[in-house]
Design a protein that fits this description.
about 180 residues; mainly beta; Immunoglobulin-like; four-stranded mixed β-sheet; disordered C terminus
Length: about 180
């Protein structure tokens, strides 16, 4: 009986999103998460490098972790779409912070709040010409506050990967005039 009551509470909580202005499915008119930063990404042909992508959840909100404690909750997932000759590895998610909600204090949620970092690896094929390549992506998440959960949404983002020897990579960055930081 407790699991049925828990499921009902989670569904009720998820369905209490307040009415919003015109809503485009999958796009939050008032994003609850933003990209905080990505360090410059440089990789030599035939090699791989680690990439940390930092996100920030707005104050007063939380999002479900990548592994929420219920199948009824929407997990946070980063999807990346690299260009030809550049590939990305598996994304590593931090553990969520355990939290309870006011109307179901006995239930524990696994969430991200404040700043959190996702990690992946980027590699370039051996024959990748030196230059800067853009990796597009989106963070899929569901935000909640202490009263309601909002419709699942997607945060579009991208970052640049400079391929070449360290010296060639620096030249390519200067030549394109692009910032090595996150682009939205």
């Amino acid at each position: 009986m407790r699991s049925a009551a828990t499921a009902f509470a989670i569904i009720a909580f998820a369905c209490t999103a307040p009415a919003q202005a015109p809503f485009e499915p999958g796009r939050d008119p008032e994003p609850k998460v933003e990209v905080a930063s990505v360090e410059p990404v440089r990789v030599a042909p035939g090699k791989a490098t680690s990439v940390d992508i930092r996100f920030r959840v707005r104050r007063g909100y939380h999002i479900n972790s990548n592994q929420p404690k219920s199948d009824l909750l929407v997990p946070t997932v980063l999807k990346l779409d690299p260009p030809t000759n550049v590939s990305v590895g598996r994304t590593v998610y931090p553990p969520g912070r355990v939290m309870t909600i006011p109307f179901a204090p006995e239930e524990k949620l696994s969430v991200y709040t404040g700043d959190f970092t996702l990690n992946t690896h980027v590699s370039a094929a051996r024959n990748t010409p030196a230059g800067t390549y853009r990796v597009h992506g989106e963070l899929q998440y569901q935000a909640c506050d202490d009263r309601a959960c909002y419709a699942p949404t997607k945060l579009p983002m991208y970052f640049d990967v400079t391929v070449g020897t360290p010296r060639a990579a620096k030249r390519a960055l200067r030549k394109t005039g692009q910032s090595p930081h996150i682009h939205r």
